[in-house]
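Researcher: Let's try something more involved. This one mixes different molecule types, so please make sure each is placed in the same coordinate frame as the others.
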Amino acid sequence: MKQNLKIAILMTLVTTVLLGIIYPLVVTGLAQVMFHDKANGQLITRHGEIVGSRIIGQAFAGSGYLHSRPSAAGNGYDAANSGGTNFAPTNQKLIDRVNSDVARLQAENPGQPIPIDLVTTSASGLDPDITPAAAEFQVPRLAHERGLGEDQVRQIIQRHTYGRQLGFLGEPRINVLEVNLALDDVSPLAKK
Amino acid sequence: MASKRSKKAIWEGKIVGRAMVDSFVKLDPRHMMGNPVMFVVEVGSVITTVLLVRGGGAFLFNLQITLWLWFTVLFANFAEAMAEGRGKAQADTLRKARSETIANRILESGQIEKIPSSNLRAGDMVKVVAGEFVPSDGEIVEGVASVDESAITGESAPVIREAGGDRSAVTGGTRVLSDEIKVKITSNPGETFLDRMIALVEGAERQKTPNEIALNILLAGLTIIFLLAVVTLQPFAIYAGAPQSVFVLVSLLVCLIPTTIGGLLSAIGIAGMDRLIQHNVLAMSGRAVEAAGDVDTLLLDKTGTITLGNRQASEFIPAPGVSEAEMADASQLSSLADETPEGRSIVVLAKEKYGLRGRELGPHEMEFVPFTAQTRMSGVNMSGNQIRKGAVDAITKYLAANGGAMPPEVQASVELIARSGGTPLVVAEKQRALGVIHLKDIVKGGMRERFDQLRAIGIKTVMITGDNPLTAAAIAREAGVDDFLAEATPKDKMDLIRREQAQGKLVAMTGDGTNDAPALAQADVGVAMNTGTQAAKEAGNMVDLDSNPTKLIEVVAIGKQLLMTRGSLTTFSIANDVAKYFAIIPAMFAGTFPVLNALNIMHLRTPQSAILSAVIFNAVIIIALIPLALRGVKYRPMSAAALLRRNLWVYGVGGIIVPFIGIKLIDMLITGVRLA
Amino acid sequence: MTINGWLQIAVFLALVLAVTKPMGIFLTHVFNRERTFMDPVLRPLERLLYRLTGVDEDHEMKWTEYAFAMLLFSVVSMLLLYLMQRVQGFLPFNPQKFAAVSPAHLAFNTAASFTTNTNWQSYSGESTMSYFTQMAGLAYHNFISAATGIALAIAFVRGIARRQMQTIGNFWVDMVRSCLWVLLPFCVVGALVLVSQGVVQNLKPYDAVKLVEPQQVQHVNADGKPAVDAAGKPVMDTVATQTIAQGPVASQEIIKEWGTNGGGFFNANSSHPFENPSPLSNLIELFTIFAISAGLTYTLGRMTGSQSHGWAVWGAMAVLFLAGVTVAYWAEARGNPLLHGVNQQVTATQAGGNMEGKEVRFGITNSALFATVTTDASCGAINGWHDSFTPLGGMVPLVNIMLSEVIFGGVGAGMYGILIYVVLAVFIAGLMVGRTPEYLGKKIEAYDVKMAMLVALIFPLVILVFTGFSSVNGFGTSSITNPGPHGFTQMLYAFTSGAGNNGSAFGGLNTNTLWYNTTLGMTMLIGRFFMIIPMLAIAGNLAQKKYVPPSLGTFPVTTPLFSALLIGVILIVGALTFFPALSLGPILEHLLMAAGKTF
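Model: All components are placed in one shared frame. Result:
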């Protein structure tokens, strides 16, 4: 009995060093060497400044930008505060929020039902993607605001569309940040 | 008894009457506590009764619920009382046989003293003459008598009991029909076979068997789980804004806990013992009955079980230079005084085949030489001549002693017969071998099919015989047993049992002789023949009153049936809960949340009728299943996989479906008569 | 539901099927202490560990000593984790300068949570835990609680396989071998694969990002309410930067799945793009949740000499898995009928369905699949919020946990969990074949039934009693964030998840309160250890029993019929216990939702 207690204490200490310290440090070392960009969050820099992570979404409200999904992370796309609303489908707050978003978006494209992902918050609050339907929904507005043809906008979107991985995994999606950076490159908005 | 007695009807008026009274007596909480499931129902009934008396709420509904809860308890008690009732009726009959008799005790001086049989102690000597009852259990030490044992066995034909050997035991309460015997009493008053038998059939000493205990734990566990589910439902209901009345909660609880099996469990156990008794087998404990169901290996004595009791002469094979007729004649002569069945069959064969009539020859002409263990021969000495018959090695020695030798042809015949499963008996005349008599074992009809059935249910049969391995193998092949033990001594038998048990197998055997006693005790199921010695009967855990060794197969079937009945009704009981949920849950909450009526898939009329129907179904199903509990579920020999499939369909799937139909029907009925 | 959706589910199950045998054989070698290709590296390391800690690797333990050693190890390591959280401010690898985890009941809850392999998170990882606590405290417990689970399962299987023996192995050896041969190598490889998909692995401080488009957001007061000025107009803040949390994520992410722990590095768990960036990483995570548990069914067959029994158990698990995923997928794909003006249909350009609380890259299929898998196993990782699932879609994970997470199940825990059901199934139905029930040659007797019932009893006990108390008291109901029946489900889910050591949540419920942190902490400890002890008692009891050779009369545990029976027993025992609660939670909510009711 006493022997087992001694083992328990020593075992905790020894394995903490092995599994809790050596293991993650070794993996960190290997990852930093093998996949440096990925291991550090695929950060995008513009003019020496980090403007985002390729796989972390950002909020866009301006009409010249492709809009991301609503976010419940902090006060919106707070990447130090990930999370969702956790609203139940029967929660009146959810219905109210969706209704007001729908009303706003329908003003943009009257008569069209709103693609569901545009009015629902993601799980992480950091969803970098929207569906092709949600992007297409925004094409007329973007074309108008950016002074581009709709097909030009579609081409930009197309370039930042990711299909199903290996042809069948996941869902097709558009990386919002990448599209907006591309839009800014192609046709910058006039500074207000 | 039973095989002779017509099968008892389940609902016999006298038994039912007594059981009804007993159902109320058994309401005593001290009795109910032994059955946790039904105890919970009783407590629930008391609670609702108290609340009913205090008034308030829907009186008619609450009254009906309360009554049906009490009925549930009473029905369960009734089931147990019914099972006991059948035993009690039998015990009454047996008690009559135990009535006081006067015994003739033989004093040391040789004088005879008349004392009441209840004063006899083990070790006393008594004399019993024709027409008298045997006053207590004992062994015959002197004399032979025909005895009427119908009071114990139900068999009216008298049996012969004689001193010495394996048929020396007599049982108190039987009647000597002819002759007179001297008996050494072996039991003290209150401990006789009859006393034990009465106690057994009455179930007075009934103890829970291992499987029953395990099942009880399972049922108690389920009861606690459902108790939790129901008790915590109230706070959930309060959260939802739909608190429930105690009547409804108790109803739900009683419907969910496994009352069906809980109510019938002890009845099933008692009925299992009872079924054995109907087969004229007395089990000394329920544990033995259960063990019978688990048996993996059956040890069967060849003689009397697999083959007819005796071998018969089927052929005379003369030695070279001896005519068949001469050989037959000598054989017949040597056997004239041989009263064994084999000896008689030789005489008969010689007569039938060669027209040789049995001759009445006086002792002055010839002297009979009986079989002894030393010579292992028998025969006859005539003027100047000797005829001997016996096993081949004994005769070889005899020939050698007389200056002769065994001819190779005879030797060959001997081996041929042995290999075919027969017993060769060599006949010789001084130095001359005359030939071989072929004694044949006759395998009983239908045995092969029975062994096939046993194999199908995974039971191995081993034939035990004193024959040599060659003979044994041939008979084993003919009878279809899986294995055999040849030239078996009591020790070999014991070793075989131990070997099987060491492999984790359960062994059953029958036996009657004192020799068998250690093996009977060692076996997991030891069935002693009632004709056997007292020692054998003490050692075994069952006694077959019919003394039919083949009965072992039925005993196994009864053991299995007992376990199957328990398992099937447990499954049925648990499966029933699905329908009860669909009856009660919507009824509880549809008032507050009409959408929950979507769960009322039986379309029960009103919440009250739904709950009441479930409670009534739950009570009535106990009564409905009493015959099944008492008779046991149908058992056909088939593999466990096939049995499982069949019983899962009948009792599992059936258990899910039946209550849906039953509750719906009850709902239609009670709404029809406007009870709810 | 789409063909492509079903294809993804089929591919996933096919992968699990494919790994079962090789994994099972490998585990058998490891725990029979037979040679494996990794021995040249690992044996010296193993021996070093034993030398450092004083373990005699040839010492065999009775079940009581096994249980005692396991408990000691859990207690000591739990205390260390508690302590580590409380002093993390003074420890290295803390670039964000996080102070001690507080209040104390949160640290207790977290320590209990990770020790019991639950990984319930009342905290938010990226704003609470230093890198050191994440690595040496949380990820470390991911290893050892999983290794303990595997060790226990192996001990149970030994109990069945051994004949007339008093001992069931050596806890320390089983635990160490689980770590060294199984978890550690799998994790090193798996972590790097995840990094290749974009899971981060670094020790740097959080990055500050200059937003492409600065945002106006309403100011939030100290009391958590949105600020308005005197005129009632919202007070706006300009947000120009985004802080991106970083950390040694991959090394923790992979053990979180291999070990079916589920505690996320970040609050958003596997929905966070840094934990689960791509559909492929998602598939890998799903696969690793099931792989060891699936392999253990093969190990069960191999060690007990009845390979087809192992497959029969696998089959029962697979059927239950498919049933769950079908319901969840169907329910989520139908969307939320209360939303109007939106398109929830499956079209060529969107997956449709109920997307609240789900990520676009996973869509409906992978979210429903993940929710099913994580609760079939006792993982509890999530890639979408179960709280926002439709009532029936959310009921699937709840029911999965209520069935004791035996559908492949937690590593080890799933195996010994289902073996308890097997014991009960064999006992109930075994009688029906007319013999004392036998399981793989071992008679199931009163003692075994008693212990199995104890396990079966403790689970509903803690769930129902604590949920009952919470339902009718302010300290319980005030944490509810979704009113109506859903709020009840939130509480029910919390205690179910705790007792089942799952760790997933109906995340809206605010459980960082004294009541929930304390009761959930207790629930997790009871749910783990009060079940393990009777389970080990059965193992010890079975080990010393005689073996009864099977015959035609033996209850068959190798057939599809047995699989069906096992499924029946699992469903009936689970469903009967929880049906009343479910009918007032998700079922009621579903019916009300269909009737157009909101709360």
